[in-house]
Amino acid sequence: MKKIIILGATGSIGRNCLEVIRANPRRFKLVGISANRNIGRCEKILGQFRPKIAAISHPASFMRLKKAAHGRTSILAGEEGILEMIESLEADTIVSAIAGSAGLLPTLASIKKGVRIAIANKEPMVMAGRLITAAAKKSGASLLPIDSEHSAVFQCLNGEPEKRLKKIILTASGGPFLNTAYKKLEKVTPAMALKHPRWKMGAKITIDSATLMNKGLEVIEARWLFGVPPEKIQVLVHPQSIVHSMVEFEDTSVMAQMGMPDMKVPIAYALSYPDRLPAPCGSLDLLKEKKLEFFPPDTKRFPCLSLAYEALAKGGTMPAVLNAANEAAVEAFLEGRAGFLDIPKLVEQAISKASLRSDNKLENIIKAHKEGGELVRTLL
Amino acid sequence: MKKIIILGATGSIGRNCLEVIRANPRRFKLVGISANRNIGRCEKILGQFRPKIAAISHPASFMRLKKAAHGRTSILAGEEGILEMIESLEADTIVSAIAGSAGLLPTLASIKKGVRIAIANKEPMVMAGRLITAAAKKSGASLLPIDSEHSAVFQCLNGEPEKRLKKIILTASGGPFLNTAYKKLEKVTPAMALKHPRWKMGAKITIDSATLMNKGLEVIEARWLFGVPPEKIQVLVHPQSIVHSMVEFEDTSVMAQMGMPDMKVPIAYALSYPDRLPAPCGSLDLLKEKKLEFFPPDTKRFPCLSLAYEALAKGGTMPAVLNAANEAAVEAFLEGRAGFLDIPKLVEQAISKASLRSDNKLENIIKAHKEGGELVRTLL
């Protein structure tokens, strides 16, 4: 019986994760959750899973949740509450699924425990990949990806000699505007961008998919998760989203992982590895798909992908600036304060103006993150 | 330094295997070869690799080869010579690449040595899969496939829990007549059938690819190599021959191995496993391929695939009958004594008329093999 903590239990990944735990009651026991503001869903989780501790970021909701817990679950509040839960609970696996940069400190605290960390939130890896992988090495924590692309790469690499890895090929659906002319991208509204053709996800990541920034962030994540230099990470547009990603070895063999677009598959894999759990969804039917296509990404219409490579090449704290600038730009787009094509422009200006700190201290990363967001807000 | 014996060194697989050894002189040393009649090529191999022993099936060539060896290579002759070489030579890996059913006894003799057997010749596995896998279990020999499809499956299974295997998906190029109407198949000549769209191979296997019998034999081979019941082995037509085969796991994840159609890749893999050797050919370019397609096989136009499943379902010695009947029918087709559409008809009649022996003694397999060939020759 594996004890699981879910950080970000009320989000899209958190909910899928709860479904996997519910479907495998003899394997997994939910011992702790964190959530931001969705108290209604929190109450349901407490009723269904009775975790030992629940930590809620939003302090004002503390009393309501405490009441709902009927003394069976300890309730903690605020960022400190989340860190306290991580520190005090015994767990085998911590699912890191807090959206955005807010996941950084909880992820670092989780890694200190030296257990398995299932990483669903790519922002901490983007901001502080070097720091996180070094901390994991020190504590003995194992980092297992939940992102479908990185889970695919992990499955392709499984047991193979690292020195024989030639290339990681991340696939991208291309998002809802794969075939939209540049001129028309100007008029893209949040409602249009929130319609992803293949995956149901949260708002931030769906917009990132539409700009290809999501793929850029994944390139940075892959660079740290798999210890591979950026020039060995390639992105291919694959509109069918069936091949979740690939790996090429020195002998030219390419291993690919394919499947249905259901996040429960990589979640179940990260929780059960090296075993695999019975199907959480229907089988892939290649006859239904008929054809799988691959195209080069168009970085003229979608410059965010190039910007991510650029930030990675600059190194140091620049990926943290990129990430924060993107968060701020996407927020502005969702609130109608910026156009779709402004997102890459704002991010580009932020990374050209931001100061570069080459050491990887946490305080510098946090400074860079603040600077990236502020630069975009000033530009707006 | 791994010592290698190649059984069938002058054939298509043997020659590719020699290229891999030549490209990796610090890893591999050729210590023994067998050949059938191609003395010219044998002489070249002796000059270039100086193996300890060469065994030649064709006794009349013995003296010529002995002269060419200049006393540096011992020459043996006949089927007994091949078996004597296998028994007396110390080796790490024996490549079993003798074409057709002639490979059965040498393969069994190789397995007795308890070393790695790289299996390029599927006929022995088809005829005597249960016997061979039992012998390998007893001696501790490891069976590594060289066939590109089985190598792909082996790579996909690598390290995964066997109980989680849901399905093996073998891909088939569909051969040169993938889109040829049934009526037109009547007029197919050997020259037409020998033009394979993707792979350069020997004559027998190229015809088998055109009838889809090759895929049927591969289903039987996979059944034994991977210990999987026939209902878990599916065949998909994939005209691009980029995905060499796939495996589906219980969690619906599908792992696929892709690559260029170059036999040196699976050969190098079988010799170097668990390592991988640097590229023996150019990288796969998915952008060049543009699309990968998958279709169900048409067993009405290509009944040989169904006949293989049927022989496997009947069990016992029936796959040996199927294999021998097919060898005889293909020979007749290549010699102009039978039409292309006669091949499945002859095989079907042979497996309906042959007696079924359910035990797996070698003598019964050899009897069944003789019966299968004779039935076809009588029908002709």
Offer a few descriptive terms.
380 residues, 47% helix, seven-stranded parallel β-sheet, Rossmann fold, alpha/beta, homodimer
One letter per element, helices H and strands E, the order of chain A comes to EHEHEHEHEHEHEHEHHHHEEEHHEHHHH
Can you tell me the CATH class of the domain at 2-145 in chain A? Alpha Beta
**Oligomeric state of shown chains:** homodimer
- Please identify, by name, the CATH architecture of the domain at 2-145 in chain A: 3-Layer(aba) Sandwich
Q: Would you identify the CATH H-level superfamily of the domain at 2-145 in chain A? A: NAD(P)-binding Rossmann-like Domain
Quick synopsis:
The structure is a homodimer of 380-residue chains. With 380 residues, chain A is α/β, with parallel strands linked by helices.
Can you describe this structure?
Two copies of one chain form a homodimer. Chain A is of the alpha/beta class. The model of chain A has no long low-confidence stretch (mean pLDDT 95). In chain A, the strands form two sheets. In chain A, strands 4-3-2-1-5-6-7 form a seven-stranded parallel sheet, with helices on both faces. The termini of chain A are far apart. The radius of gyration of chain A is 20 Å and the shape is globular. In chain A, α5 (104-112) runs parallel beside α6 (122-139) and α6 packs parallel to α11. The first copy, chain A, has 17 helices and twelve strands. β12 (291-293) of chain A pairs antiparallel with β12 of chain B, so a sheet runs across the interface.
